[in-house]
């Protein structure tokens, strides 16, 4: 089986860890080898959370700079910050709804221009899928479903060895019943966004 390397970056509280657990569960349910690692950083204070996932027969979860096949960004500036993990053949999927860091909130910094972020990512990778995942999560019924929107877009690309059905089953297994319908709707909206 080919090896696929995925980096997921987010700001604490965006649901990165649940997203990686859903993907891991889908892989396990499908007998697909998967290795995962996480870096939490200052997540509880709005800092970066990074997950590395390697699908296929690999010996390590470490994804060196320039070796990620896919970068999934829950926040646009964090996606740009992690771009060194990508190469000219990588695909980047990112949410375009910014979460300004503390320095911007207190007037000591400036958030980068979203168009410039997209241009920089396009110049370094093969493909960029960028959209407002927060708006789609709200449409699904809960802003916290942004992680499921982005998973839907990711799986729709066909770059992972997982199907929509396998991930839907993992969502059903890994998420609370009270949020299941919203999460599945968010996943479908993400599928549609990736096709646009």
Quick recap of the structure?
This protein is of the alpha/beta class. It has helices at about 15-30, 75-80, 100-105, 115-125, 135-140, 145-155, 165-175, 175-195; strands at about 5-10, 35-40, 50-55, 70-75, 90-95, 125-130.
Question: How are the secondary structure elements laid out?
Answer:
Elements: E1 4-11, H1 16-29, E2 34-39, E3 48-55, E4 70-73, H2 76-81, E5 91-95, H3 102-105, H4 114-124, E6 127-131, H5 133-140, H6 146-156, H7 164-174, H8 177-195
Helix pairs in contact: 1-7, 5-6, 5-8, 6-8
Characterise this structure.
The chain is 43% helix and 18% strand. It contains eight helices and six strands, in the order βαβββαβααβαααα. The protein has a single domain (4-195), classed as Pyruvate-ferredoxin oxidoreductase, PFOR, domain III (Pyruvate-ferredoxin Oxidoreductase, domain 3). The protein has helices spanning 16-29, 76-81, 102-105, 114-124, 133-140, 146-156, 164-174, 177-195, and strands at 4-11, 34-39, 48-55, 70-73, 91-95, 127-131. The protein is an alpha/beta fold and 196 residues long. It has a six-stranded mixed beta sheet with strand order 2-3-1-4-5-6, sandwiched between helices.
Task: Name the descriptors.
about 200 residues, alpha/beta, Pyruvate-ferredoxin Oxidoreductase, domain 3, six-stranded mixed β-sheet, 8 helices, 6 strands, about 20% strand, globular
């Amino acid at each position: 089986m080919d090896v696929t390397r995925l980096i997921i970056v987010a700001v604490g509280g965006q649901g990165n860890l649940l997203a990686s657990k859903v993907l891991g569960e889908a892989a396990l349910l499908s007998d697909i080898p998967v290795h995962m690692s996480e870096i939490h950083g200052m997540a509880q204070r709005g800092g970066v959370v990074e997950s590395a996932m390697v699908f296929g027969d690999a010996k390590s979860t470490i994804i060196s700079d320039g070796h990620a096949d896919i970068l999934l960004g829950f926040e646009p500036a964090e996606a740009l910050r992690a771009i060194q993990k990508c190469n000219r053949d990588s695909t980047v999927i990112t949410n375009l709804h910014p979460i300004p860091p503390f320095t911007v909130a207190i007037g000591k910094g400036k958030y980068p221009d979203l168009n410039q972020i997209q241009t920089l990512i396009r110049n370094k990778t093969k493909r960029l899928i960028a959209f407002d995942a927060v708006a789609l999560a709200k449409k699904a019924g809960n802003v916290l479903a942004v992680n499921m929107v982005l998973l839907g877009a990711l799986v729709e690309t066909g770059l992972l060895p997982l199907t929509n059905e396998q991930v839907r089953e993992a969502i059903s297994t890994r998420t609370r019943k009270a949020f299941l319908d919203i999460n599945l709707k968010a996943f479908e909206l993400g599928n549609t966004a990736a096709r646009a």
